[in-house]
């Protein structure tokens, strides 16, 4: 599930309660009188709707027989010879390797796909990002990556609604810093005598604005 952004503007605050009923009760009341540093402020409690969110399942399958190789050196040798060199290097690898079933080499992109005969042989190279490759008495470094199959399932859009969160508007500016004002707001709305309850998260903005993100 992707994070859903919400724009919090100047002199506004967002409060997320542990209990959904508390948030809905405060919304129905509409207005609240809050004591901010010995100043009485009438703030408005508003419900709000988030933008659309996206849900999907990401499936990643890592091959146990194939690895991808990049940064193959540009050498003036025939492609078949380079293919044989790659096969020989990975067949005799100190990392494990084993008998190679197939090598697909692309000279233009300087990449190759090595397929081993034994299942699980590719697992030896999962954490090997740089692999020594010996050709004509020289040692080059190849980049090795696991071969993965990635696809999405159950992709869907949904409307983001936070029933446990309220939006406060019209908070008067004071000489106190944001953190102090935020603490005073939190104390007020946590008290059952003010129809409040336990608060999970709170965010207050006195100047400018900021983006906050919601997760399902």
From TrEMBL:
It is found in: Cytoplasm; Nucleus; Secreted. Keywords: Cytoplasm, Immunity, Innate immunity, Nucleus, Secreted. It comes from Chunga burmeisteri (Black-legged seriema). This is NMI protein. PANTHER family: INTERFERON-INDUCED PROTEIN 35/NMI N-MYC/STAT INTERACTING PROTEIN, N-MYC-INTERACTOR. Residues 13-102, 112-201 form the NID domain. It comes from the Eukaryota. Signal peptide: none annotated.
């Amino acid at each position: 599930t992707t994070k859903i952004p919400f724009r919090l503007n100047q002199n506004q605050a967002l409060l997320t309660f542990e209990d959904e009923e508390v948030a809905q009760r405060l919304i129905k009341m509409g207005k609240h009188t809050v004591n901010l540093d010995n100043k009485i402020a009438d703030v408005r409690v508003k419900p709000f709707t988030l933008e659309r969110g996206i849900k999907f399942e990401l499936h990643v399958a890592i091959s146990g027989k194939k690895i991808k190789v990049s940064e193959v050196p540009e050498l003036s040798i025939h492609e078949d010879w380079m293919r044989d060199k790659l096969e020989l290097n990975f067949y005799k690898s100190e990392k494990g390797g084993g008998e190679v079933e197939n090598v697909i080499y692309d000279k233009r992109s300087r990449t190759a796909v090595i397929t081993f005969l034994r299942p699980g042989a590719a697992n030896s190279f999962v954490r090997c990002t740089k692999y020594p490759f010996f050709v004509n008495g020289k040692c080059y470094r190849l980049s090795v990556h696991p071969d993965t199959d990635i696809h999405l399932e159950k992709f869907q859009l949904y409307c983001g609604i936070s029933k446990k969160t309220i939006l406060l508007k019209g908070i008067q500016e004071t000489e106190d810093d944001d953190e102090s004002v935020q603490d005073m707001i939190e104390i007020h709305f946590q008290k059952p005598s003010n129809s409040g309850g336990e608060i999970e998260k709170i965010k207050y903005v006195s100047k400018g604005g900021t983006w906050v993100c919601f997760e399902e």
